[in-house]
Amino acid sequence: AARVKQAHDSSWKFIEERAPLKLIVPGYRDMQSGWGGMGGGAWGSKPQPADEDEDQPQQKTPSAPAFGQSFKASQPSAGSGTASAGNGAFSGAFTPAGGTFTPMDSGPAAPTFGVGSGTRESDLNKREAALVKKEAELKKMERELMEAGGYKKKNFPICMPLWHHDIVGEIPEKSRRVVREMYICWWMFVFCMSYQIFCASVMLGYSVGDKVPSWFLSLIYWVLGVPLSIILWYKRVYYAARDDSKVGFAFFLLFFLCHCCFCIWCAIAVPVSVARWSFSGWVTAFTALKVASPVGIIYIIGSAFWSINATYCLWCLKDSWLFFRGRGGTAAVKQELALNAFKSQAAGTAV
Description:
The protein is mostly helical. The protein is 62% helix and 2% strand. Helix 8 packs antiparallel against helix 9 (246-268) and helix 10 (282-291) runs antiparallel to helix 11. The radius of gyration is 52 Å and the shape is elongated.
């Protein structure tokens, strides 16, 4: 027991020499009595009576400082050292023989929210003004490009613009008449195909056979016929007139001849199996009169539209052929083909 007591006292003496625990640890005097608790413990002796401590002067234990305040507790030491932290931190020294513990004063107050809101608002206004200025510059550049011919806005067909269409601005004056005629032919074809769907839809209200398949076929004719008419003959005549291409004009005449034949067939409209109500031609119109007079009249009107369209297409075909012959005809086509072959051969040799 004596050896344990001696080891215990040596440990506390060593700790006391390393740090001023009497100054910074409240109740240190009571802790000296043992590790087990205040005033006594498993490893310490009995606590001293109260009267024995009265004669000894009580050393005032410093209280913990409030937040933001500073305090200093010093004790003579043989050496000194420092340890510091940021704003509001502390610095102190721990030396083998003692030292000082000196927390620093609290740093400057933290910035409050809302400071500089006027600056941020002015920055936002400047950015908005810069965006408006940039948008105006882009619109100006777009107008300049359109005027110079570098950028051409897509505007045809109207329902789904796919390419730029401007007869007056792109087509030479000597070729505008033919292109305008083809433009009218195309719109007449779109109208007749749309009216044909209307006729098949009216027939759905009557008790006749093959009315549903005929309605679907009329819709398919519109979905396929209108885009193909643009690709096969209208765009060809437009580009041929714009670029003065004889070969392109010859292909246009070929496909437009096929279009004229299709319009003539639609005007006649001989009933064929399930498609007997899909075309609004004369034969189908007379057959519809036997079903009901109202639907027969509707089909007759459609037959008149197809007849007018077919007649106008034949007249435009003749006028286009005369225009083609006046520009050199087949001889000009052969010459252009030979020139294109020579250019291709020269390009291949250069490569």
